[in-house]
Design goal:
The protein is built from ten helices and no strands. With 238 residues, it is mainly alpha-helical.
């Protein structure tokens, strides 16, 4: 099972307090960490926010390989940018390195602890219906496409596809991707037909419990207060 598919499963099956907290509270906390990190120019504040993000993902029971990949990729891209624009004081460059890691870890925590209907429910209240429903269906289609691509790759390996010449592997991969596109189009048509038969009324995600607060939201509130305090108290003279 791919890491992305496992992340989607953990969002619904996880047992941490973060999984039991409301989607609205987690969404507000994740957005706070992202925007506070982007707005702060003081290194202590940015590092404190990143420490909070690390605490969230490490206590959510997420796969460590996915956490490392989520932290390494934006750090690598930011390091390339810093290397090209190097010059002047050290602190601004360290801030540039830390910001994307904080944002990525915050979004990883949000997605990994929130089932997708709850995740898109608050967004569907803000975005236009067509856009909200499109994002909702695209998110689900992504995992279905990944699962099909994984099965296709396994079938290719079982038939000795990895031992074929490079040119043949490229052709086979192209044919497989074309098949996935056609299947995806046909599946979307069937899905829409089923939605119409079941009385689709113009809003896909109509779930209402995304904003129901529980006792585990206390932890989200405490982290929210800690993040605000770090952003304010450690902002320095920036």
């Amino acid at each position: 099972m791919s890491l992305i598919r496992r992340l989607d499963d953990l969002a619904s099956l996880g047992r941490s307090p973060w999984h039991r907290a409301s989607a609205l509270g987690k969404l507000l906390l994740a957005l706070l960490l992202v925007f506070a990190s982007l707005a702060s120019r003081a290194l202590p504040a940015v590092l404190a926010l990143q420490a909070i993000a690390w605490l969230l993902v490490l206590t959510a029971g997420l796969p460590w390989r996915l956490i490392v990949a989520a932290a390494a990729y934006p750090l690598f891209v930011a390091a390339l940018f810093v290397g090209v624009t190097w010059g002047g004081p050290l602190e601004p460059h360290l801030v540039l390195l830390a910001r994307p890691v904080t944002a990525t870890l915050s979004m990883l925590w949000l997605i990994g602890t929130t089932p997708y209907p709850d995740l898109f429910a608050p967004l569907s209240r803000v975005l236009p219906r067509s856009l909200g429903d499109g994002l909702f269906l695209t998110y689900r289609a992504l995992f279905d496409l990944l699962a099909r691509a994984e099965r296709l790759h396994q079938a290719q390996r079982m038939r000795g596809g990895d031992a074929a010449p490079a040119a043949r592997r490229v052709v086979t991969t192209g044919e497989g991707l074309a098949t996935l596109v056609v299947q995806g189009f046909e599946r979307s048509q069937r899905l829409y037909a089923v939605m119409l038969l079941r009385g689709h009324s113009g809003r896909v995600c109509g779930c209402r419990h995304w904003a129901e607060l529980g006792r585990d939201d206390v932890w989200v509130g405490l982290v929210f207060v800690a993040a605000v305090s770090a952003a304010v108290l450690l902002r320095g003279g920036a």
